[in-house]
Amino acid sequence: VMTMHSFRLFLLCLTISSALHHITLQKFHHTTYVDDPKTATVESWLREGLNEKVGVHSSETVLYGSVNTTMEYYVSIEIGSNSQLFAVQIDTGSSVLAVPSYGCQQYGLEGNNAVPLGTACPHADSLYDPSGSSSSRTVSCAANSGCQCEHGSCLFNLGYGDNSFVFGQQRSDIVTLAGLSTRAKFGSIEGESKQFEATYVDGIMGMAYTSLDPLNGDSVFQNLVEAGKVNDSFSMCLGHAGGMLVLGGMDPNFSDGEPQYTPIIDESYYVVEMQDLLVEGISIGMPAVSYNQSIVDSGTTLIAFPSAIHHALIKYLVTHICPGLPHHIGCTMPSDRKFSTSINAGYPSINTTMQGRASVR
Predict the structure, then answer these.
(1) What is the pTM of this model?
(2) Distance between CA atoms of 342 and 292, rounded to whole angstroms?
(3) SS3 assignment, position 226
(4) Contact at 8 Å (CB) between 121 and 165?
(5) What Å distances lie between residue 187 and 97, 108, 201, 337, CA to CA?
(6) Residue 165: Cβ within 10 Å count
(7) Spatial distance between the Cα atoms of 79 and 130, rounded to a whole number of angstroms
(8) What does the alpha-carbon distance between residue 148 and residue 156 come to, in Å, rounded to a whole number?
């Protein structure tokens, strides 16, 4: 569970009411297929229910790529007076909303320079059209002092940890999330890297604090909180085939235990203090100061540690765990071996503990 002032540990549920507002989340593999991409559109999938239209594997999932392969949770939102519909990734590791606009083009990198690839962004069914919304506004440089400015209007430029990037104009319009509406500044994407989002996801909605990146736009959730439309907390229940985003609190129906709490120690990202790693309940023996600070990021599948912690964890596994694993599992895995739930079940449980004795397995 996360609030804008504390992080209440997530149980495979991250949480954030006057009343609770539920949004169904869909999990998306970059390799996930669609039943009939020639006849269906993103808009029709969203309106009819994505869980009926998107191919989802259960119990045993083939992993493509490496540990860096992206998996996403995304929701539908509406923008503008004419309710333009978008599918956006929910990302607690960033703060800004960005969606593709008409004329959006894909770019590559040559050195540090963005180079057009000559292809349109692959979101033809969901492109923001400011001319179709009577509530759409440009963002003047005077209204967002310090932004990247061109002809008196603010631009935006965002980069992410997977080296994807987007850029374009800032716009201000009415954004509706879970039936709650607020005016917000956001990125109207004119250029995006080829790997920015999967074909059937349009954009990204950051859920962190506006203070993380105030010159590129608003945190829509923070705007809703400041407008008094929702309590200052949200939760995400992350399942194998979708989940739930709850604005305004935590729904106990998605938890089999009491929430755990750890403080947010820096209100930009959701920064928390890790204190220990336990393998099958036993500490790997590193002092708490070695862990530094960590961020809770729904936009990545990675768990990243300082190198000293990583080396200590590997040493502990090789010394205490690997000799006892069945031969067909082992501590090494050939690149052509498919990862499965049966293999996963053979590995030890690893828990992270945080300030306040909160723990995540």
Answers:
(1) 0.77
(2) 34
(3) helix
(4) no
(5) 6, 19, 16, 41
(6) 17
(7) 10
(8) 7
Which pair of tokens denotes residue 93? 């590791």
Q: Are 230 and 18 in contact (CB under 8 A)?
A: yes
What is the β-pairing status of strands 153-159 and 266-267? unpaired
Contacts with 158 (C-beta within 8 Å, 6 or more apart), sequence order: 94, 96, 98, 165, 166, 167, 187, 213, 216
Cα–Cα dist 8/253, whole Å: 16
Neighbours of 359 (CB within 10 A): 15
What does the pLDDT look like over 331-356, one tens digit per residue? 665 555 555 555 566 678 888 898 88
Give me the numbers of helices (H) and strands (E) for the chain, helices first please.
5, 21
Sign of torsion over alpha carbons 274, 242, 267, 306? positive
Single-letter amino acid, residue 155: L
- Residue 361 pLDDT: 79
pLDDT in tens, 63-85: 112 233 346 778 888 999 999 99
Taking CA atoms, 302 is separated from 147, 169, 291, 299, in Å, by 31, 31, 16, 9
How many residues does the structure list for the chain? 361
